[in-house]
Amino acid sequence: MTTHYQAANWKKPLILAVTLVALGGVALWLETSYRPKKEAQDESDRKALPLKGKAIATIRVSDGKKSFKFRCLDQGKLCKPGDSSKWEWVEPLVLKADDSSVNSLVSSLTTLAPSDTIDLTVETEDKKKTLLAEYRLDETSRKSAKKVELTMEDGTVYSLILGDTHPIGDSQYALPKDEKKVLLIANHFKTNLEHPASHWRDKKLMTWNPHEIKAIHFEGPKGKWDATRKDTSWVLNQDIAGDIENIDTLLNAIAYMTAKDFISEKRTDARSKSILSNAKRVAKFDLKRDADLITLSLYQKGGSGKPAVNDFKLYATLSTTEVLYELEPSSKDRFLKDLKDIRLTKLITSMDRFGAKKLSFSGGALGGNPLVLENMAGKWLLAADKSEADLDQVNQFLDRISGNKITEFLGKTQPKGEESGIRVQIADEKGETKRDLVFWKSSDKVFARDMLVPKSEIVRVDPIIFESLPKSPDFFKKKVK
């Protein structure tokens, strides 16, 4: 008996496998490429202008009477929707634009979606003209219409002309550049095109950083003062310690001051002269940098003079420009600083407090031997026996003398009792004495003086500091629980 074997037929399974692979590839392509692109295209089609992902070169906005044009400054990274782009105002003046304002306009244009559309391609030319006239989008109406025009980096131009308000609902007719359809967009969009010139231009007066200022000369209603930067500190009127934080706050306020409005590009014109001639100068700053001097003057016009009532106009001029600026009246108090506002009201700075590695107390009830504490590996030890000091008590003392505890500067007044006071010397890790303070009581008031500063002024301090001073050699000993 002969057995016949039929050869296996692989043809059909192979065709089926190839077909399944092909179908899988098509499905994968649909899922990863075609569908996202189709959804993105559908989303773009639903917007008034197809701007997403496209680089904008220029923008022109018009409210029907005046127009402004802005140019992208980001040459390496052109201005795309969503970018924190830099802009230049090129018409009618060449100035730095307010980046946040222009970027906000780009964002509004990118997300602007019509609630409905009217297809003009299905209408006859006569009907199309009739509709455009009805919507106030005809040639005559366009001459005084609000309009925005964008030129892309590749030369493509998009525009949107705003027409009449829809009789029903909160929407407005708008016409894109291709004139194939009329869009119904949110009525509030038009506010983006109605801003004054001051909205679009950069409102910062200064172009320097606070750390560049080396010296300040101030003249105000209550007198004058000078401040000179010495390494990381400030010296006032040549021999008074300045408060670093308060002076830096003042310089930051000046460096980042912004205009409420721009009165004139020439403060020598008739309008500016009229304003300044009837205004009172309330502050003058001479700000010295390495190579130049910048003078800032503030002027107040009108007002009742009552505290916290901003019923006046505040103006500013700079030596580096001819512009007359108007400022917010409420900003005035940030700039008018008397000497007492910027001098150091701390006995030691925060830097001295955290850099302290050795404390030496002497005088008063401590007897002839000073009480010395040393900081070793983050712990305070009593130098006499190397025992651990009460960390909370040491920190309390340091916190109090590094806080704003000076309550009065006494000038030439010399309260008695300094010779019987407690002396505190504070040294850093190199052993250099950074502060040498004497504290004493007189008539239930506490006073202090820095022995390191020649002719240093005696100051009255918060009595709570005296409570933190050692009254006996074991004052800082760690309590045994």
Plain-language structure description:
The chain has 481 residues and is of the alpha+beta class. The protein contains eleven helices and 26 strands. It has helices at residues 11-45, 99-111, 125-134, 139-142, 197-200, 244-255, 270-277, 339-342, 350-355, 391-401, 464-467; strands at residues 56-62, 67-72, 87-91, 95-96, 116-119, 147-152, 157-165, 171-176, 181-186, 215-220, 223-230, 233-236, 240-241, 261-264, 280-288, 293-301, 313-318, 324-327, 358-363, 371-376, 379-382, 406-409, 422-427, 433-442, 445-450, 459-461. The protein has a nine-stranded antiparallel β-sheet, with no helix packed on it. A nine-stranded antiparallel β-sheet has the order 13-12-11-10-15-16-17-18-14, with helices on one face. Strand 8 and strand 9 (181-186) form a beta hairpin. The model is unreliable at 36-44 (pLDDT under 50).
Shape: elongated
Strand content: 25-35%
Head-to-tail CA distance between termini: 108 Å
Fraction in helix: 10-25%
Please tally the β strands and state the result. 26
Low-confidence stretches: 36-44
Which terms would index this structure?
481 residues, alpha+beta, nine-stranded antiparallel sheet
